[in-house]
Write a structure and sequence with these properties.
By secondary structure, the chain is α/β, with parallel strands linked by helices. It has two domains: 146 residues, Quinone Oxidoreductase, Chain A, domain 1, CATH 3.90.180; 149 residues, NAD(P)-binding Rossmann-like Domain (Rossmann fold), CATH 3.40.50. It has eight helices and 15 strands. Strands 3, 4, 5, 6, 7, 14 and 15 form a seven-stranded mixed β-sheet that branches. A six-stranded parallel β-sheet has the order 10-9-8-11-12-13, sandwiched between helices. The longest helix has 14 residues. The structure holds NADP nicotinamide-adenine-dinucleotide phosphate.
Length: 326
């Protein structure tokens, strides 16, 4: 009999999450007796912002992990193989194999499987689709990205450089700004210490921005929109500055700026292009192997520290992808 540890949301989040919102439970899992069933043991769990806004009280925390198959009646997933699964915050899971993504067969031995949760996984895909499918970023254009030192933002800036663009990024600490410069961002600044965000954006690109990859929303968005060039494009990927609000923020509203600058703004979920994932993951892996994409991970050790890692990410502790080594 396998025992699973599972993090449950005991009480719906109100404001910033706190320790008492989470409870660690132990479940006895049934043997995977039926054909097609298998048991997974998580090795690395992804810490992601959407877990703050897409949760129901009493449910296991939603989340993605890299897991090892430890028991199997499913020939597609032999014992010892690894998968990416949307199993939630769980150490062990019984699965029928649907919804599991095998690690690509050509995954190089010298590249950590944890990157299947980062640069060569969902965050990398989000960056790629935002740039190619939503923004249609063209060589020579200027792109702005916020939360730029995070999992998605750091890949956004690097892909934009691969495409021959000027990249401006903002992040919340000087260490993050130094990292963005290492990654080749043309301009990077600390949005918490610049004084005037408007002046910082104007100074970074006096001629304005063709494209804006939006991860933050709220005040940043209000200040950034008037800095767009006419016909600028905005990919709304996330809005992390409002996820912890108990009362929704109101105005100023962007409509007049959008009308007079004739802006195009589109929200998106990376899952829209699921049919392209295998090919896109190969491209991301190719850039990683060529050294065109650099990666960094913020690793917390121990499954018992999942809530602490989650709250740390929401307050900006991470450079690169926040993960938990189980
Ligand atoms: N649409 C999709 O399919 C999709 C998929 C994945 C992620 N997302 C979204 O993309 C964004 C980035 O996700 P990620 O996984 O890459 O996270 P991440 O950037 O690795 O981590 C979150 C970062 O957000 C910043 N942040 C937190 N609170 C903030 C605030 N109040 N104002 C400004 N910045 C704040 C912090 O960095 P600083 O120190 O720089 O503040 C923090 O490190 C999130 O909004 C997420 O919801 C969307």
């Amino acid at each position: 009999m396998v025992q699973a540890k599972v993090w449950i949301l005991t009480k719906h989040f109100e404001g910033f999450p706190k320790d008492s919102d989470f409870e660690l439970k132990v479940e006895e899992l049934p043997e995977p007796k039926h054909g097609g069933n298998l048991t997974l043991r998580s090795t690395v769990c992804l810490i992601r912002p959407f877990s703050r806004v897409r949760m129901k009280e009493g449910d296991a925390m939603i989340g993605t992990q890299v897991a090892k198959v430890i028991q199997s009646n499913n020939p597609a997933f032999p014992v010892g193989s690894h998968v990416v699964g949307r199993c939630g915050w769980r150490t062990h899971t019984v699965s029928d194999g649907t919804d599991l993504i095998p690690i690509m067969p050509e995954w190089p031995q010298d590249i950590s499987l944890s990157l299947a949760l980062g640069t060569v996984g969902m965050p990398g895909l989000t960056a790629l689709y935002g740039i190619e499918e939503v923004l249609g970023l063209q060589k020579g254009e200027t792109l702005l990205v916020n939360a730029a030192a995070g999992a998605v933002g750091s890949v956004v800036g690097q892909i934009a450089k691969i495409k021959g663009c000027k990249v401006v990024g903002s992040a919340g600490t000087d260490a993050k700004v130094a990292y963005l410069k290492e990654l080749g961002f043309d301009v990077a600044f600390n949005y918490k210490t610049v004084g005037s965000l408007e002046e910082a954006l104007k100074k970074a690109s006096p001629e304005g921005y063709d494209c804006f990859f939006e991860n933050v929303g709220g005040y940043f968005s209000t200040v950034a929109l008037p800095q767009m060039k006419n016909f600028g494009r905005i990919a709304v990927c996330g809005s992390i500055s409002v996820y912890n609000d108990s009362t929704p923020q109101t105005g100023p509203y962007p409509h007049l700026t959008m009308i007079f600058k004739q802006l195009k703004m589109e929200g998106f979920m990376q899952s829209r292009w699921e049919h392209k994932h295998p090919e896109s993951l190969k491209r991301l892996m190719g850039w990683l192997k060529e050294g065109k994409l650099k990666k960094r991970e913020h690793v917390t050790k121990g499954f018992e520290n999942m809530p602490a890692a989650f709250m740390g990410m929401l307050q900006g502790d991470n450079i690169g992808k926040a993960i938990v080594a189980v």
